Amino acid sequence: MHLESIPKIAMNKLLILLLFVCLASCKSSKIQSVEDAIIVIQKTPCMGTCPEYEMMIFENRRVVIEAKQHLPIKGKFRGELSVQTYEELIEKFEDSDFFEFEDRYTSNITDMPTTYLTYRSGDKAKKIMDYHGAPKALKDLENEVHGLIDQISWTEVKED
Prior knowledge:
Strand order of the largest sheet: 5-7-6-1-2-3-4-8
Number of helices: 3
Helix content: 25-40%
Mean pLDDT: 86
Structural class: alpha+beta
Number of strands: 8
Radius of gyration: 21 Å
Distance between the termini: 37 Å
């Protein structure tokens, strides 16, 4: 069978179908971006052994981390939260009145790591910078999210 024997309308439909399949498969294999994440934590380095990483938690319970230093893992990894862990985490963020915290907590102290914590709920999103002096409720959330690193079964993401 030659391509010339396929009617033009059928060929157009076939091309549209192939394009749709390609676009669908490209989208599903894409690593989700920080804009899609429900919770993002980023920890910056210090002069000591402070962990440095960025971790994103998505609505589908997927977790992606780029671990840079001073963690049990190093590189890009994926994992997944259990339904219960995910729901409890979201509940803690909601109960904390996250959107009522200040945008920044800082001081003149030097060589402290900075923690950036972002939370999205519905059409609201807030990113908080915590260098020093954040309230206990915010520190508790940071520790809760950070503690997931040791709980998740990670799979390394191989880059092409």
